[in-house]
Amino acid sequence: MDIYSIFGTVPVTALVGIGTGVVGFAVAVIGRYFYDKMNAAKIEAEHKKWADEARKEADNIIKAAKLEASSELIKRREESTQEFNQIRNELREQEKRLTRREDAAQRLSELAAEKEKQIELSERRMSDRQTAVDRKEKQITEIMNEQKKKLFQLTNMNVDEARELLLKRLEDECEYEMNTLIKKKIEETNDTVEQKAREIISLSIQRYAADQACENCVASVDIPNDDMKGRIIGREGRNIRAFEMATGVDVIVDDTPGVIVISCFDPIRRETARLSMEKLIQDGRIHPTRIEEIVAQSLKEVKAKVLQIGKEAAVEVDVRGLNNRILEKLGTLHFRTSYGQNVLRHDIEVAFLAQVMADELGLDGSVARRAGLLHDIGKAMDHEVEGGHPAIGANFLKRFSESSVIINCVEAHHGDVVADNPYSPLIAAADAISAARPGARRETLERYVKRLEKLEEIASSFRGVTNCYAIQAGREVRVIIDAENVNDEAATKVARDIAKKIEDEMTYPGEIKVTLLRELRCVEYAR
Prior knowledge:
Blueprint: H1 3-7, H2 12-155, H3 159-207, E1 218-222, H4 227-233, H5 238-247, E2 250-252, E3 259-263, H6 267-283, H7 288-317, H8 324-333, E4 337-338, E5 341-342, H9 343-360, H10 365-374, H11 389-398, H12 404-412, H13 423-435, H14 445-460, E6 465-471, E7 476-481, H15 488-505, E8 513-518
Parallel strand pairs: 7-8
Antiparallel strand pairs: 1-3, 2-3, 4-5, 6-7
Keywords: Cell membrane, Coiled coil, Endonuclease, Hydrolase, Membrane, Nuclease, RNA-binding, Transmembrane, Transmembrane helix
Coiled coil: 70-125
GO molecular function, one term: RNA binding
């Protein structure tokens, strides 16, 4: 079979096309081969170039690293050298210090040895002296025994009588020395303390000057006309009885024109009644039902006013963190008086006085201010709570977790318990200063006279007192003693004993000065 027989049936154009395609394909394959070969050579050249550049860069990095390592090594070596030199210098300093200590220890050892020698020598001397003293004591004892025998023979006294005489003489001598010592100590104390105390107290009073106001147990209510009195009394007195029953006060309607009087010892009830009466007069509807409504409304207003007054007092004194129950009791003190002195104003004054004195003494003024404000909180309690107001106030404050310092200040400001902190004496002093201000408190004439008589009675009860006079409203007592029976040293002790007895037996605001006078008059006549 030949080619023609195979492609005999195929047209010539088709054969030409097939041949052309075969040739083109071959040419493409050959061209692709040569192109890939050229690209491979080019890529190989680029790779070689990159490798050379990378090699050069690596060499540069290695050189830089070697230089850096070299410089770091040099730096570390220098630091090591410096550290070594520093350690060596420190070791040298320590060696020098140890050498000095060894020298000092050696000197101390030498001194100790010398001291031991001196002590041994002193002990030997003391032993010799003790022997001599024992010998002399023995001799003195023998001499005293001989003198006793001679004394008994001369005086015809036995041992008990002689002992009693000797003890009497020793007692007189000791009393004289004791009186002299008391006088000396009092003078020293007055020289060092009185001036400083006066400075602190005067500074405190000058820095806080408060007005004093006295209140009474009645309140007056103005009425528009006298016809209103009949409406207040009501038919057969039912209105006034209902008012007195609802408020717990006494209403006094007399012939005084334009005013009625409300009387009650409880200031809260009195204030509630006064407000209620003013509202009833303004309203005009006065009957038992309306009276009960007005009184209930006024009572709420008074309670709110009491709390507000307590808060204002706390703000004025700058005392924070007080419970509302405590603030209510403080507000209640605004309506209470002590010897005519408003208790709340007294507490505020004590707070500021105590703060000033605490600041002058280097103590915490805020603690003194808080204790001063709360020191009379027990006076806000009614008669249902038994006990003195210091103990009542302390127990009340314990329920609200007040500090032990504040509680002791409240409990000890009248000396009922011992003060355990420096603030309690300050509160007691500030309380006395506030109560002793001129016009701060008032007394009835009967009580005033009794207090003066008691002062003179106490002073007259001592031996040697000839006359005594209470002066300056009972704040000073002048005592005149017999100069022949009492000497100067004993006079000092008598004055102190009188003051102590006044402290123990009397209750008074402030302090009482005891001035004792001793005068010896010698009269002779030349004839």
